[in-house]
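A common beginner's mistake is to predict each chain separately and then try to dock the pieces by hand. The better habit, illustrated here, is to supply every component at once so that their relative placement is modeled jointly.
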Amino acid sequence: MDTERKNILEGVMDLHVHTAPDVIRRTYNDLELTDAAVRAGARAIVIKGHHCGTVARAALCNAYNRAVHGDNSFYMYGGLVLNREAGGLNEQAVQTALRMGAKIIWLPTVDAENEYRKRGKTGGIRMTDSRGNLLPELLGIFSLIKSYDAVLATGHISPEEIHCVVDGARNAGVRKIVITHPEYWVVDLSVSRQKALLEDYGVIFERCYRQPLQNGQWVSNAARNLDAIRQLGTAHTILSTDCGDPANPPWEEAMRQYLQFMLDHGMRSSEIQAMTRTLPAWLLGLEDLPKQ
Ligand SMILES: [Zn+2]
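With all components supplied together, the output reads:
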């Protein structure tokens, strides 16, 4: 059992895991996740915090890993979410995060206007003005992301904003654009809209293992993600867990279940490999994409 478990996770990368310290309880702290990832034989994880940057924490995870576990192939990475604490669409915060090695800049999540609206609140950070034009602050942010060849991830913004942002980011030369969990009810980006974004802009979809509903219950996204992958293909998809809430299994168990579900439903292991190793490695700047 243990060998099987290790095999399915060997070399795996997950670009979306939540850890403590945080304002809410998390299954693992940064160092515990490092231990779990090394034990599982994983290659990379990006830790994400809605309320504070994770790039400095990731650097300490790597120092800890080398000191405690010695030589191994695992690296932790971090990024920044442009919520209120980061100052919203704050170019300076983005620049500092990127200079420190951030791999992903997420647009607002829990402070997105879209999220506020979906939860019946007013306010929140928007991406466009009242006429639907992209806010100029985003252009400076796109240009920084481009120059570091980092990932722009869409966070929890609305489908309309996603379209506008993707168009602006592509025009600004951003190469790596990830649509964050399009299946999440707050984002709720339909498969037909995903198809259009894929065809027009070649974006990448991050399909996550589970999501929290409004009543606080967590549900699996596996079946709906499998369906979306069947419609849109594996070439532009990465699989992440979005793990960290204690209501979910610990990271390694969640990832194992998710990948096993895909295998049990006809996904080939080469396809799993592409979604959890090849494409994430390119997004993290670790490897070029293989020539087609
Ligand atoms: Zn998340």
